[in-house]
Design a protein that fits this description.
single chain, mainly alpha, Arc Repressor Mutant, 2 domains
Length: 78
Amino acid sequence: MQAATTIYIRKDLKGQLDDLKRHPKESYSDVIERLVSVAVDDGPLSEEAIQGLEEALKDIKQGRLIPESEIMKKYGVK
């Protein structure tokens, strides 16, 4: 059996973890492990992904950005 530890979490966060359980008896450790496995990607980036990032950096450096406020206004989002 692996060593365990106790952590402190807010009640609202505990409620969110409860909502993410696949079944009532699933442990919080299993829920957290599932979340971590989704959040962490150890695989290398594809050439396509690298190209996309480089293009995005060029756009940023050259000021080709649309402010969030303009996009929200355009689509009627408040």
